[in-house]
Amino acid sequence: MPDAPDPAGRPLLLVDVDGVISLFGFAAHAQPPGRWAVVDGIPHLLSPTAGAHLHRLAARFELVWCTGWEEKADAELPHHAGAPAGLPHLGFDRHAGRGMQGHWKLAAIDEHAGPDRALAWLDDAFTPACETWAVARRGPTLLVPTRPHEGLTDVHVAALERWADALRAAA
C-alpha cells in the first residue's frame, strides 16, 4: 500500500547506505575522513558529515531508508553516524520484479511511494532501468547519484534543498 502523503507536504527522500553513508572504493593510501564501525561483523567507514546532512535534509524531506541494510540502518546509523533515529525502511524481496523492472529496489519503492508522490533517491548504484523508471513516474522524481568513496556531500544537500524548495514553490 502506498505511503500516505506527509502532512507537512514534504517529498520522500530515499536514502541508501553503502556508497552514501558507508564509504568504500578508495585506495588504502587515500582513505577519506570517517569513523570505522563494525556492523554484523563487517567494518564500515562512515562519513563524518552524512548524519548532519541527513538531519538538515529532514527539514524538507520525509526520510526513508532504501538500503539492503533494511532495519539495521535505523538500529545502527543513529548511534554510529549521527543519522536521524526512528526512520522507516523499505523491505526488499530481491527476486520479486527484478526481471520486470531491472533494479532490485524499484518494486519496494513503488509500493511505498505510489506513482504520484514526489521523491528523491540517494544511491551510488543507479542503473539505466532506474533512469527509465524515474522518467516514467507521474510524480516528480530526482535521482541523486553519489560516488561511493565520497558519499553524501554538501553539493548533494544543496541540490536536494533547491529541488524541494522548487516543488514547494510550484505547489
List its salient traits.
alpha/beta; 171 residues; 33% helix; Rossmann fold
Q: Assign a percent range to the helix content.
A: 25-40%
Cα distance, first to last residue?
A: 25 Å
**Strand adjacency order, main sheet:** 5-1-6-7
CATH topology term: Rossmann fold
The number of domains? 1
| Low-pLDDT sequence parts | none
Number of helices: 6
Q: What CATH architecture would you give?
A: 3-Layer(aba) Sandwich
Q: Give the tally of β-strands.
A: 7
Topology order in helix (H) and strand (E) letters: EEEEHEHHHEHEH
CATH C-level name: Alpha Beta
Mean pLDDT: 91
Beta-strand percent range: 15-25%
CA gyration radius, whole angstroms: 16 Å
Major sheet, described briefly? 4 strands, parallel
Note down, in words, how this protein is organized.
- It is a single chain.
- By secondary structure, the protein is an alpha/beta fold.
- It has a single domain, classed as 3-Layer(aba) Sandwich (Rossmann fold).
- It has six helices and seven strands, in the order ββββαβαααβαβα.
- It has helices at 50-57, 71-81, 98-101, 106-113, 128-136, 154-170; strands spanning 12-15, 22-23, 35-39, 42-46, 62-65, 119-123, 141-145.
- Strands 5-1-6-7 form a four-stranded parallel β-sheet, sandwiched between helices. The chain has a three-stranded antiparallel β-sheet with strand order 2-4-3, with helices on one face.
- The longest helix is centred in the last third of the chain and has 17 residues, at 154-170.
- It is globular and about 45 Å long.
- The two termini are 25 Å apart.
- 35% of the residues are buried.
- The mean pLDDT is 91.
